Give the backbone structure.
Amino acid sequence: MILGMGPLEIVIILVIVLVIFGPKNLPKIGSALGKTVKNVREGMEEGKDEKDESPIESHDDSVEVIEDEDDADAPEAAASDAVFCSKCGAKNAADAEFCSKCGSKLN
């Protein structure tokens, strides 16, 4: 039994497909179906490979800080109250536990 169907149901489906598409188009349909199944299987295998690999995180401590125009006019006292994210470099409030831009935990 394939997909809960017996041999009689499969034969009926094949006869209907033959009548609808004709005998000349069946090889084209079979080829297209085979390529589609192959691509789906390859895509599923790639997804499994990506899940198996642990994500590689960069431990580079150097962060490029880009100041906004508003930050350039702010006094330096206000800049000392800010905490910068080590992953994305975004400016956050001093009492913030998580980055407002990328959501990572602030050190």
